[in-house]
Amino acid sequence: MKTSISLTSLAFLASSVLAIPTPDTSASGLEKCSATSITPCVCPAGTTYRESVTFSVIGAAANDVTNVISSFFHTDWLGVSPYKTSGTDNVPGAVRTSKLPTLAGIFDITEVETVYHEDKKFGGFVEKFEQEQSTVPVKYANGSGEIAGYWITLAAQHVFQYETAIEWSVYACETNYPRNFAKFHEEALKNATDILTKSNKIKGKNVDPFSIQTFLN
Fold first, then answer.
1. Phi then psi for 154, rounded to 5 degrees?
2. How far is residue 63's CA from residue 69's CA, in Å, rounded to a whole number?
3. How far apart are alpha carbons 116 and 93 in whole angstroms?
4. Cβ atoms within 10 A of the Cβ of 26, count?
5. Neighbours of 100 (CB within 10 A)
6. What residues form DSSP beta bridges with 163?
7. pLDDT by residue (tens digit) across 144-192?
8. Contact of 214 with 49, CB cutoff 8 Å
9. What is the DSSP pairing of strand 48-58 with strand 163-174?
10. Which residues pair with 160 in a beta bridge?
11. In the chain, at which residue ranges do the beta strands (DSSP E only) sit?
């Protein structure tokens, strides 16, 4: 069953508290993009800033949603799984490398998990990860551009017994927009809902994923 829900009610606070360093600002007055920069931020020359956020409600208990989508290493629900991992799953510092298809080609992308926190009382979690900095930039094979960093937050929050709100945000520095984050995230969340449906975990109301995506020059 589906229902409507306002954007305001979905825009819950999903990030953990981070220490704020002295801003590294450019001539524009904006910070250079990093894990702690205020958005929008300044990307490296030759790349463009972009941001995307996807919201949904999955009609299952937060613990059941967490079991499907929280693992940093086991990501079949995404449609992309890492072929190499190091560290401990869902412990900051964990690293994964996957083959990611884009409009500019298929790239070996290494990501590092920087934050992971589960809500032990109500269920749900907050996870942050980013392109591993020693691999930045990843150059396009044809020499036309690069992927020069991206920073992602995925959060699942208990709303009611069988409703879990999802917020999945990303800001990135890339040449020529090789990835449609909104489409990828929406399809992945629909897949997660299908997995929960097949295991008879959907007992509440679903709200289909929807996104707000901005491209800035």
1. -120, 125
2. 10
3. 10
4. 12
5. 17
6. 160
7. 899 999 999 999 999 999 999 999 999 999 998 888 999 999 999 999 9
8. no
9. antiparallel
10. 163
11. 48-58, 84-86, 95-102, 105-118, 124-131, 138-139, 146-160, 163-174, 207-215
Q: Say if CB 3 and CB 159 are below 8 A apart.
A: no
Q: Which two tokens stand for residue 174?
A: 């890339």
Residue 189's nearest CA partner among 151, 156, 148 is 156
The count of other CB atoms within 10 Å of the CB of residue 13 is 9
* Secondary structure (3-state) at 36: coil
Buried-exposed string 156-170: b where 16+ CB fall within 10 A, e elsewhere: bbbbeebbbbbbbbb
Compute the distance between CA of residue 42 and CA of residue 29 in angstroms, rounded to an integer. 9
CB–CB of 72/87 below 8 Å? Answer: no
What is the model's pTM?
0.85
Domains and their CATH numbers in the chain:
49-215 (3.30.530.20)
Question: Residue 120 has which token pair?
Answer: 């032990």
Per-residue model confidence as pLDDT tens digits over 87-144: 999 999 999 999 988 888 899 999 999 999 999 999 999 999 999 999 999 999 888 8
